[in-house]
Amino acid sequence: MRSRAARAWVSGLAVAVLLGAGLGAGVAGAAGAPPSDVPLTVTLVARACGAYTDVSANLARNNIMESLRDLGPDTAYSPGQPINPTVENSVPSQAACSPLPGFQFTFGSGISGTVPGTNLSKVSNASTTVAARASTPLLDPNGVPTGSSIAGAVTVTLTPEQAALAQQNSRLWVQGGTPTDATGNAVFGDGAYAFAALRCAIDNLNGDNVEWVSYPTGASHVFCYYYAIRNSPRSATITVVKHVPGGDPTGQVFAFGGTVSYNPGGYFGLSAGQSASFVRAETAPGGAPWEVSETTPPGWQTPAVGCVVSGALLPGDPPTTYTITASSVAIHLGVQDITCTYTNSLPATTTTLTVDKVTEGRAGGPFAVTVTPSSGPDHALGAATTSLSGVAALVGTVAGLPLGPTVLTETVPASAAGHWVLARADCDGSPMAVSGLSARYTFTSTTPGGHIDAVCTLVNRWEPTARLVTDLTTHGGVGTAQFSVLPLTTSGQAGVGVPLVQTATTTAPGVAAVAAGDDTTALDVGTYAVIPSGLGDTATGHWVFVSASCTGGAGVVGPSGADNAVQVTLSDTAADAACHFVYRLAADPTVDVVKVVSAGNDLRAGPVTIVLACPQGERATVQLAPGADRAQLPAPLPVEAAQTCTLAETATGAPAGVTPGARYTLARAGGAVLAQGPLTGTLAVPVTDGAHVVATVDDSYVVGGVELPQTGGGGALVVLGAGLALVGAVLVTATTRRRQRS
Questions:
Q1: Nearest Cα to 473, choosing from 561, 585, 552, 588?
Q2: For the domain bounded by 467-587, which CATH number is listed?
Q3: Domain 348-464 has CATH 2.60.40
């Protein structure tokens, strides 16, 4: 919106031009003012019309006009001719407009911006507000009643202050409506009327909502006519922006045309960095769109045009839509604003484009790239496969491309183990606009006939989706196991990175529980070791590994090793695998040691010692003192399964001249005999899961080849402490050592 000074200058310039051309007869000035004792009056007339085309324009059709659509016939006035009812009614469509009593006018001493919520100018220093009446007497130029009346009007006698302002150019102003309500919403209801035109006295130049009042020589009465349109259309703002990348050293003015501008021929001009805004009415259903187009100057490339629609929509509001065709935009305006940017570049004779490919996350390919220039055919550059992540591979080069927006579109290799995304792209360090698998860049030049060599790099990121699911099944009880998922190198060694850890807890025997914890649903291809751990002993038993198997994947190795780990390979064609681990709860085996003396007990000079030792560290000692005939462990000794313990009599207690003899019996507790015979040296005692073995050693003593009868007796069992007990005169010790089982 122009300032008061600019608006006054335009009107004053028009008066000066008219006077200079000999067309200003009757134009007011200080010398031609009526006598000071003659009151000055102005009749303000309000009219309502059905369409903008019913209203004639003021002298100047330009973008100072504030109507939401262009007006109808050209003005019927000649320059400097005072506004009057006769000329107004000479326009048939205008004469058919109806009076608008109740419409308000406001006087002021200047122009101050626009009425809030509108594009309509308002006065500053507002002094008087009046409303049109049903009718008022029709006065002649001297303020004398003619005997007729004029409908929808009011006649105002100026105050002395207003009269003094009226004797000066552009000092007494009138606006349609009030500074807070330009179209009478408070009187007639919201949207009942819209501004079309205002002309006052001899100010009939620009079509805005403020005009200034002055008096022709000898006249003391003038007219102001205000035209409104019934049923105000909704409006929005159309903004056109001119952009030249890097600035325009030539200062070129770009010519625009179309219907958005009210200038003759729709012309308006913009230089680089400038913009123009137009408040216009919504496009009626089936109506012609608002149009804007650029006439590209010689030596410049056809502009790249982009539009952005902004603003919220309420239910029932029409949206703003647009269609871009070359350098023209057709806008179906709703209630949303729209900004269209025209980007022009100086031409280059040719552009040579080289395209590189970089991958992140893994090497891969082939990646095929197609170049779509701003004009001309597409160019297939071929394909590239990277050998190392982060290292560029050449896709290809194409020469002779025109300036303007250029789109690079790629195809990526398919894989069941993940997918490639176009993460980013740049041309010579400037970012490209990436959308899906396409990247857009606009090539420009400030030197006509020059040449551009550009390198564009497309960077793809690998997003893996290979899956490895692990579950646990337990029999004979429930338990919790931990699984470590470790990537391996091609040689089977542990790879780089922290293992992924998951835990599975069964809730019922025989029912598999899926492990949870670190995510294993976005793995890269490769070989992984799945290592179970954490299933330890229970109060009455231990877990025994049963099996491990995997389904899916590209290959499975194992189970192997002491930890029963499996290796599973995930590939681009077999990217999902599930591994199943099964364990059984087994009861702990025990070994009991019993020492008896069948004969010659009274011949012993010292104790008899029996030692049980197992590879896993379990150990027990039974010692039978002289005079006692039986010793036994206080309780069977728990031992690890799947091992062979040894039993040895390390001391017989026999004195000189007495020969000891020993026999052993291995039997299930309360069950069948497993083995028996003479005890010579060390006896092997095999231990299996759940077995309860009793080892009995029976000693006899011989003198001169005669076995002596047994003497002595047993006694009560007395527990002395951890691992020590006495049975009569019998010393018993036991040591257990349990290890964690997997």
A1: 585
A2: 2.60.40
A3: yes
CA 693 to chain centre: 69
HSE value, Cβ hemisphere, 13 Å, CA-based, for 110: 9
Beta bridge partners of 94: none
| CA gap 72, 150 in Å, rounded | 24
In the numeric block, which tokens belong to residue 318? 């029409």
Query: Among positive and negative, which fits the CA dihedral 246, 308, 276, 76?
Result: positive
Contact 175, 210 (CB under 8 A): yes
Query: Which residue did the predictor score with more confidence, 28 or 413?
Result: 413
Which CATH number describes the domain made up of 590-735?
2.60.40
Strand order of the sheet with strand 337-343?
275-281, 235-243, 337-343, 304-310
Phi-psi region of 164 (alpha: psi -120 to 50; beta: other; left: phi over 0): alpha
Say what the pTM is: 0.48
CA–CA separation, 569 and 487 (whole Å): 10
**Fold match between 467-587 and 590-735?**
yes
Q: Which residues contact 414 (CB under 8 A, 6 or more apart)?
A: none
Asked if 522 and 464 count as a contact pair (C-beta separation under 8 A), the reply is yes
- Rounded Cα gap, residues 141 and 94, in angstroms: 22
Cβ-contact 149, 227 below 8 angstroms: no
* 3-state helix vs strand vs coil in the chain, percent to 5: 5, 50, 45
Give the integer Cα–Cα distance in Å for 153 and 137: 9
Per-residue pLDDT reduced to its tens digit, 608-646:
899 999 998 889 999 888 878 888 888 888 887 778 999
Of residues 434, 604, 579, the one with CA closest to residue 520: 579
Judged against a pLDDT cut of 60, whether residue 404 lies above it is answered with: yes
Take residue 650 and report the two structure tokens written for it: 């390390």
DSSP per residue, 341-393 = EEE--B-EEEEEEEEEEEEESS----EEEEEE-SSS--EEEEEE--SSTT--E
Residue 414's CB: how many other CB atoms inside 10 A? 8
Distance from C-alpha of 315 to C-alpha of 333, rounded to nearest angstrom: 16
Domain boundaries, the chain: 4-230, 235-343, 348-464, 467-587, 590-735
